[in-house]
Design goal:
The protein has two helices and no strands. The protein is mostly helical and 57 residues long. It has a domain of 39 residues.
Length: 57
């Protein structure tokens, strides 16, 4: 599976909702895709390790 950036996921989200507005995907399809993107975003955010000075130091 290709790793996508948060910016790429944002672009995909816009594309999904543009397709929905153009009535090329149904409500259910758009919602399902949006939920999958949300899950991917969360996984990316959880995998990001903070850098810099640790808190409390």
């Amino acid at each position: 599976m290709q790793r996508l950036t948060l910016a790429q996921l944002d672009d995909l989200s816009r594309t999904i909702w543009q397709a929905h507005a153009a009535e090329t995907v149904t409500d259910a399809e758009a919602q399902g895709l949006a939920e999958a993107l949300h899950t991917r975003r969360n996984a990316i955010r959880e995998a990001v390790a903070p850098v810099g000075i640790p808190l409390g130091v």
